[in-house]
Request: fold
Amino acid sequence: MNIPNKIAKIDAEILKTTKLSKMAETDGGGNHSYWTGYLEGLQFARKIFISLINKKGMKS
Reply:
């Protein structure tokens, strides 16, 4: 598993989701909370991958 590539994909998804979340804020629908929750999940996954890299770095 190539962790830096996974983080790059998550970063791209975070950027896209942030834009969608901002657009959903203004549409008045219930989509904003969906995108906000999704964004929080992405950021959490990113933290996990970074901690995996840090652990791997300590071992070598």
Remarks:
- The chain has one domain: 3-59.
- The chain has a mean pLDDT of 85.
